[in-house]
Amino acid sequence: MLEQLLIFTRGGLILWTCKELRDALKGSPIDTLIRSCLLEERSADSSYHYEAPGAAYTLKWTFNNDLGLIFVAVYQKILHLLYVDDLLSMVKKEFSEIYDPKRTNYYDFDDVFRQLRNEVEARAEELKKSKQVGRAAPVALGKKQGGTSIVRSDGKQNGNTSSKDGGDSDSAKEHKENGNSNGHQNRVKKNVVVNNNNKENRDSEAFDVNKLLKLRSKGVKKQESVVTKAPPKAEPKKKATKKNRVWDDSPPETKLDFADPVDERGIEDMEVVTENHGESMMDKEEVFSSDSESEEEEDEEAGKDPKIDEKKKGWFSSMFQSIAGKANLEMSDLEPALKALKDRLLTKNVAEEIAEKLCESVAASLVGKKLASFTRVSSTVQAAMEDALVRILTPKRSIDVLRDVHAAKEQGRPYVITFVGVNGVGKSTNLAKIAYWLQQHNISVMMAACDTFRSGAVEQLRTHARRLQIPIFEKGYERDPAVVAKEAIQEASRTGSDVVLVDTAGRMQDNEPLMRALSKLISLNSPDLVLFVGEALVGNDAVDQLSKFNQKLADLSNSPTSRVIDGIVLTKFDCIDDKVGAALSMVYISGAPVMFVGCGQSYTDLKKLNVKTIVKTLLK
Description:
45% of the residues lie in helices and 13% in strands. It is of the alpha/beta class. An eight-stranded mixed β-sheet has the order 11-10-12-9-13-14-15-16, sandwiched between helices. A five-stranded antiparallel β-sheet has the order 2-1-5-4-3, sandwiched between helices. Strands 6-7-8 form a three-stranded antiparallel β-sheet.
């Protein structure tokens, strides 16, 4: 049964709801649909499943882009209502005819909706009955009155029916006649002789099992005799270890060990001269001027040959002409522009799945919309895509690390940031960059070396800590990283450190044992921020990495409230030129914002993501 049907504007004004249906929906399915689907450019999906404690709904929707209206139907997830799509299209057609932007009450639409609902429900019931009749028809064809038909192997059909005069059946009569005839006895004897001969032939051709058992027993005896006669094996000699060659009579040198001394608590004693690495790029505002760049492009185009300019014109304007006198945009008008736009996104390293969904969402927002005068379809599509990209890349919630650090300090506890990701993306290096940025804001930082798996990971983090003069907590290798992180947080609370940066081992998203260990670390220590470190060089694999990291962290968590990725650190951004699509793919698939961008090898090469620059590069 239908739970609710709403009609509201794109601005959020509810115009009409069905009063006959239940008003009290459990949870907030409509708000979640707007926040998680419509605003995230996933409006091209066919449906959305909402789950809350004690409720599970399926939501379907349609648009009237010309009037700016949204029609949403809500029903129980367990039900499969076949008429919802037809009902939405009919309601959209009827309501659009009576819609007036100055009007806010549509109480007279209740009767119209009741009639439409009864019509589609009756149609769905008739369709259901016709399907049931169609399934029962083949079964009925195989039946007859008074018995069942049996098809023999020779293709003939015998009726196994009872005779009307109460006599014996044909089979019984045949049995009596054959039993009294001598010809039948002779035939039976001949058949017996033939069958016995065939049996003897098969027995002669078959392999004798007794011979096989004798052969096996002989093989076992031989093997036992060989084993008893064999001399006892000598123990293998240990391989001699290589010794250092002594060239003279000087005393032997001590064993080379470049590890720094660490006290009982795992805190390294460092005496390094302070080194100023400069100001971090995180605190520098990146200036973006679209007017100046557009003027430069116009100057460059002005000096070109007009014939060449016709061939190398903008990738939109060179392919599509404006539509004159077109009342509403149709899908056929948008397909050429959307195909070219999808190809452009793919060349910018956007994942194919993400590019396709974005184009479908843009098409859903433009179909039925009126084209303004002297406006090309290409420019309309580009403007819609630009707005969609800005909405996706703009953070939906504010994550101010400096503010949150001071709030945790007032509560008397350290602020914990955990870095996760696949192998070789630069987690330790960018952890050090963030530590340097925090140091510039007079925030005391402690590093936790929880990568106890990779050889050299502790030494690498120790080198960064020595250069930045930051205390590091480490317990060596082959330890439980969750326990090491917990002890590091306790040590930071004891020493008064403001922030604990937890470094973890790199792991592939399909490695379940390592993903289980990471889930244990996060659920045991409850960090304030979980940052996924991904490289900007990745393409389609970004979708697989982030989706599986989120899924594994949620599925393998032991706590009732599972944690997922809160933010993204995009590394190696200086190596990609204009292939900036990884940022879009990661944000789209996870919903987490890009908080830090690594753009070099020094500690100052860390900056914020400039949304306008990314959007301009994607559509260039």
